[in-house]
Amino acid sequence: MFGHFLSSEMFNFDYTYLKLSPTFYHLQHPKPVIQPSLVLLNSELLNDMGIVGLQQNELVKILSGNEVPISWRPFAQAYAGHQFGYFNMLGDGRAIVLGEQIANGTERFDIQLKGSGPTKYSRKGDGRATLQSMLREYLISEAMNYLGIPTSRSMAVVKTGEKVQRESASEGAVLTRVMKSHIRIGTFEYARYLDSADEIKKLADYTINRLYPECKHSNHPYLSLFEMIVDKQVNLVTHWMRVGFIHGVMNTDNTSISGESFDYGPCAFMNYYNPSTVYSSIDVNSRYSFENQPNILKWNLCRLAESLIPIVHHDHQIAVDMLTELINDFDRKWKLSYNKMMLAKIGLDDSKADNIELVSQLCSIMETYQLDYTNTFRHLTYHHSLDSKIDGNLESVEWMKKWKEKTHDSEGIIPQSKKWMMDNNPVLIPRNHLVEQAIKQAADGDISLFSTYCEMIKNPYQNYSDRGVFVNPPSIDYEHNYKTYCGT
């Protein structure tokens, strides 16, 4: 009775992924935890998913993995991936999809528990997650959502009452993650590894039906699928660059087919502008630096193209040629998308050479004088200046003169320029030092700063005067020594 009530009235789960070959998944129940207790609950997201009317104590049992209604068929997904350039067979080693929630009658979302115990793919891992790493994912994913960037969402964080052994013993937790789909480039690499064109085709058909139904009308549906994924990913990473976001582990298993950001491990937001910035402690060769993200994206998309060769055309060479043509068009698409975005950040939309040069000059000024990336554009948007510490500097004066000639008239800044800048330049991003402080305090039992931050990030483009420390970068010394970790 209890299980039927939950599944039929509170959750609206479907399991279309299980129509694929069982080689793509393993039916797996979460491992119960000792003492689940709620840390964070995203009520707005629950409502958006149509999950209403459930008592909190019942919800905690579900979102900790301790209660699974009999009608549900939770599963872990199999996939492969290139991690730092090296191919590995992988899979959900600590994540289990409870089901595909049907929201608003038509929209489909995976609801997944992360840190829910070992699976077939755990490779001797414990399948658990630390409270601090799940708090990070909750905060960053929600910040990305309100910054207007396609992303997974976080529904809840539940403490397990158990210790997780990493560098030291840490509090354990389970995160509830919501996403349009957890299909990755690595899922297609896995299908290609099986050396079965039929399995690749079934996966591609499923992806088209679920995420890209417009491809069905194409003369070459799998080629169209690839092209649409390229466009989605170019748009996504352009938005990362817009707000100074560095993913940290752009492996192919962390590159979603749906064009959503996810897996927020060693990620961070750049403060002082330096295109070679790396925060991840494991990225010793700067593979995933801020400036290298578009190059890595292209590399990842090449791996997807290789996986699709057997189904794009029956003639191998023709398939290669067709996919190569699209890959060769990546640089044009990236340049167009990136330039349009950066021009909008300074209130322009014409990609003339002198406008592009104006962007390049500003980036050079920011790098030379170690200016804060977000605040430089914020000051430009609201105060029509760069940074007080370089006021009067010849480069700054010359740049401002050129910029105002293009964006101002006799009455001040042109309204359209102002709008472009306000729409593209956030006032508030997650600041690394404050993120760490909020996470540490929350892990120690004081959720107040974390909760305040979660409320602040809901309006990242509004220039409130009382935001105080939330818009200030850390010290340069802190920034130069800051490292993030994968949390696994």
Structural write-up:
The N terminus is likely disordered. The chain has 488 residues and is an alpha+beta fold. The strands form five sheets. Strands 1, 3, 7, 8, 9, 10 and 11 form a seven-stranded antiparallel sheet that branches. The longest helix is centred in the middle third of the chain and has 23 residues. It is globular.
Task: Record the SSE blueprint.
Blueprint: H1 2-10, E1 13-14, E2 25-27, E3 37-41, H2 43-48, H3 56-64, E4 75-77, E5 80-83, E6 86-89, E7 95-103, E8 107-114, E9 129-130, H4 131-146, E10 153-165, E11 169-179, H5 185-193, H6 197-211, H7 221-243, E12 245-246, E13 268-269, H8 293-312, H9 316-328, H10 330-345, H11 353-368, H12 373-383, H13 394-407, E14 408-409, E15 412-413, H14 415-424, H15 432-443, H16 448-456, H17 476-481
Antiparallel strand pairs: 1-7, 2-4, 3-10, 5-6, 7-8, 8-11, 9-11, 10-11, 12-13, 14-15
Helix pairs in contact: 4-15, 5-8, 6-8, 7-8, 7-10, 8-9, 11-13, 15-16
